[in-house]
Every structure is written in structure tokens, then in C-alpha cells.
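Researcher: Re-running this chain for the archive, since the previous output was lost when a drive failed. Same request as before.
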Amino acid sequence: MYYSTTHPSPVGLITLASDGDSLVGLWLEGQKYHGHSIPEAMNEKSDLPIFRQTKQWLDRYFAGQKPVISKLPLAPMGSAFRQCVWSVLCEIPYGEVITYGAIAKRLGVKSSQAVGGAVGHNPVSIIIPCHRVVGANGSLTGYAGGLRAKRKLLDLEGQRLRRDTQHELEKA
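Model: Regenerated C-alpha cells:
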């Protein structure tokens, strides 16, 4: 059985999903692939300990603190390759970015596009920081939650990207 609840944030309403013990999903309202990894309907249940923990984690994150990912029991569902990519994402330090190509190189794969697909299907966004992945030239590229949300998350972390990032946002 899977459970869900919502939590307001500076980037919009967030939906949390759990199997009762671990966090299996976190999506922004309107996010691409919202809830796609959950194999059955979710029941609303906001009083689970994992939801309280996650909401506290998010509140600390949005307050500019640097909560540790490993403090939350995460259980994102996905292929072995996606799990490897998401593991790399968890190692990206707060306020830093990495390119899709650098992740591919680190994993010993040739396809940055395959890495991009795994990053885009991350079912626990924000906490598994897929917003910290940028294009080869440092440009702001793709984010299932939208480029404005990605920019806001990176701004919160103090990340400065290329000057033309604002132009990219205007095109989005």
C-alpha cells in the first residue's frame, strides 16, 4: 500500500509518497512523470513519521540550511541504471552542479542522453538533487519540475550559472 500527502513550498505544492516506511516519491505540482513510479493508487495519510521527517527536512532546506540526504529513508523505484544515476546525484554537494556528461563518465557509460533520461525520471526530486545537473557548457537544461523551479532551487543554494540562463528561462 502506498500513501501520499502534500506540503507547501517556495517552488509550489509538493506531493510526497511513501510505502509506509520510506519516501518513494516527491513531486512538484505539475511535474512531468508525477507519480509515475508508484504501481498503485495512493491513499492520503499525512500523519506518517516519514512524512513528518520529510516535511522537516524540506523546511530546513528551504530555510537555506543544508540537511543531509542520508537522514531520510529513501526508496525510489527504478531500474538498476537509474538507481546508479540517482546514487551519483545524492553525492553532489549542496550549492554545486555537475554535467550529464560528467555523470556518464563517472558511471563508465557513453550516453549522456541515457543519464539525462534517468535524471529526468528521478521520483524523489529536490531531496535527490537532480536540479544540480546542468548542460555541458554550464547552461540550465531540462528539469521535470520546470526550469523556473530549477533556477529557484539553484538560486536558493547560491549557485551562479551562465549569464544566458535568464534568456533560457524567458524562452521556457
